[in-house]
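Researcher: I need the complex structure. Ligand is glyceraldehyde-3-phosphate. Inputs:
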Amino acid sequence: PLVSMTEMLNKAKAEGYAVGQFNLNNLEFTQAILQAAEEEKSPVICGVSEGAARYMGGFKTVVGMVKNLMQEYNVTVPVAIHLDHGSSFEKCVEAIHAGFTSVMIDGSHHPLEENIALTKRVVDVAHALGVSVEAELGRIGGQEDDLVVDEAEAAYAIPSECKELVEATGVDCFAPALGSVHGPYKGEPNLGFDRMKEINELVGIPLVLHGGTGIPTKDIQKAISLGHAKINVNTESQISSAKAVRQVLEEKPELYDPRKYLGPAREAIKDTVKGKMREFGSSNKA
Ligand code: G3H
Ligand code: ZN
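Model: Output:
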């Protein structure tokens, strides 16, 4: 069923695993992610950035695609459709209106008080409609679609501010920037585990790890043990899909039917997503 993130994340946090947010980029990504979730018997969060939604034909198109595929595949596991890095109150409302079951309002570039006020407005609307909300503090480095944060701008979240934001807004889950990066890492990720522990103890609600691509398994496990119940992955599926397309077209340069190269891409995405579900411990938890 299509659900908000609240229940799946509270369960994950209580039981010590994380639910993956896998970003949708097109039809094949959506198919692969839903099939992987059903085959792994795992809850799943379909992440949709504003840029990706634009590419796919708008929020309503995305919701229709997910709903229809769920029906077609007889999906029984819990699925959330989540706006990733929502840039404004208006965009969040538009996504909710289109049928999204969850939204992130990313007010991390605003001063704390403004971030709190904006997040609270979104929570008031979302919760009235049974939609879950994710907020962010600090600044996650790297690039994802329209969102670009260079190294100098990237900043670790401050624990006392995290507590203030979570308490003042009533968000369902919370993403503190702690050194993770969107896109490929330059060198080893350097996650702030001391701060992570402190923030987890202060806020209590499920934490969200953005930039899940390229983080070593031992760090993933540590982040889960320190309160992370949601981990976002996009780049890794994109890399495996591009690799599959490249391989097929290099082997058969005369090929032109998109199904012949996007089919293998879909299989590659599915394998990547299944691997992540096992790594995060969400397999057989639906
Ligand atoms: O919001 C989406 C994720 O944070 C993407 O992270 O680029 O490391 O896969 P990634
Ligand atoms: Zn992110």
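Model: Summary of the prediction. The two ends are 11 Å apart (CA to CA).
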